[in-house]
Amino acid sequence: MKVKILSTSDVHGYVYPTDYSTPNNIADYGMLKAATLIKQQKQAAAADEIVIAVENGDWIQGSPLTSYVAKQTTAKQQGIFSQITSNIGYDAGVLGNHEFNYGLDYLRAAEHYRNYPLLGANIAGGRQQQIVDAPYTIVKQKGIKVAILGLTTAYIPVWEQANHLTGLNFKSALETAKLWVPRLREMADVVVVAYHGGLESDLKTGLPSEKITAEDEGYRILTQVPGIDALITGHQHRQIAAVYNGLPVTQPGERGRFVGCIELQLEKNNEVQGSTATLLATEEMIPDSTLTQMTAKLEQKVQTWLDQPLGQVNGTAMAIVDPMQARLHGHPYLQFINQVEMAATGVDIAATALFNNEVRGYEAEVTIRQVLNSYGYPNTLVVERITGADLKAALERCASFFEVQAGQVVVAAAFVKPKVQYYNYDFYSGIDYEFDLRQPVGSRVTKLKYHGETVTAEQTLQVAMNQYRGNGGGEYDMFGTAKVVKEVNLDMTELITDYFEQNNPVTATQPENFQVKW
Asked: If you write DSSP's letter for every residue of 342-398 in order, what string do you get?
């Protein structure tokens, strides 16, 4: 008997094969393509084969389509995401961290039409039963019992707004797996762990590949929890298919480019005797016709909405041509986002990130499409009261983003591997500062002034930033909720839209407050 375990993860609402950069863009990914592959695999199952599919989280947030559904539709219409996954034929689902970005009411609406269980063994608290069905499920097919344990990253409270997590507690995925796997081992023939979290150490060497926290515990689960037959991971957007000491592991990237595929070979006593792990590319798949028909009107509404004009830009262009140069020298677009943050919070220091190299900024005529493609997270704002020492520490973290190779500035390896983290480098407005990359990491901030005066370690400052950074996300431990003095609970895209309405046209200027030496 063979057990095949398929998984998607981190699709981030990319239903259609498009990146939404233009109305006619065609991409090589999307849930509609993954749907075709999963249905084909299930339909082609042999008499001695079981095919199980798991949706491993970060599904209902991340694309312009998800922004439209969250902000422009009713609760009933928001259930489209669970209608899609139910039609595909998933056997279980797991929550990702981004499932919580729009709050629990939206999460329940988006997941309303499921015909499969939503699993969350390490999610506890008084409202836990309102968003997950069970810690595990057991799929019984052809005389075989397959137990699936659902886990999500325990780091969600570090990033998410507290009012989005009311009544919930997130426990260590590792400790939860240690508790449940032995029990499931007694109840089922096969034990699968589906974890919306990643691998914090290299599979070959065992050496840490990132700071060891509760964010990613996959390697520790892999090496410290006996009795697991297959491990599904996610969250890091990596493409992983490997067998570690006989235990198969997958992570299928993002946006539905791949479907993870683990195959287990069972002997007559139903014990696993062999396994493989692969990634199945969806690029050549034709989008599922049933789901295309189900969602076509929604997609058209999204495309029309995206091309609504918001305002105009005068002066230096806000279009980003070279992301690296924008980070090295500042950019009118980054300056503008900080300007929006300062206007919304009433402070005169702000920080923002160029989240990825797909951010294009704004043309002279600005549309909703440009705003959403450039600011793809539903971040809200906080103001933190910090010391000069805190600010310098944050800037040193930013300065560590760069390294010099053969006379050229490149992104430091720690921000690229094991996953790309461009979003963890910030550009600041309202201060004058300088990095000297010839100095060792931790000693690169050679100038830091506020209102023309050198910032002292004891000095108190107020800084606007998104709530992810304000919670300390991205290893910015100098920030935290205890230092928050003001919250603006509107998404940044709403604040940007409001700013255009009140200040149209806006004037773009190249910032001159930041220098890098190397």
From this structure: HHHHT-S-EEEE---TT--EE-SEEEHHHHHHH--S---EEEEEEEHHHHHHHHHHH
**Is residue 57 within 8 Å of 291, Cβ to Cβ?**
no
- Fold for domain 308-517? 5'-nucleotidase;  domain 2 (3.90.780)
Kindly give, in sequence order, each residue whose CB lies less than 8 Å from that of residue 26, ignoring residues fewer than 6 positions away. 17, 18
Q: Which CATH class is domain 2-302?
A: alpha beta
354, 334 contact by CB (below 8 A)? yes
Q: Which part of the chain is CATH 3.90.780.10?
A: 308-517
Ranges of CATH 3.60.21.10 domains, the chain:
2-302
Which residues 6+ apart lie within 8 Å of 180 measured at CB?
Answer: 121, 135, 136, 149
Q: Tokens standing for 254?
A: 């993002």
pTM tops 0.85:
yes
Mean pLDDT of the chain: 96
Span 163-213, pLDDT tens digits: 999 999 999 999 999 999 999 999 999 999 999 999 999 999 999 999 999
Q: Which residues contact 288 (CB under 8 A, 6 or more apart)?
A: 32, 33, 35, 36, 39, 88
Place of tokens 């970005």: 101
DSSP 3-state percent helix, strand, coil across the chain (nearest 5) = 30, 30, 40
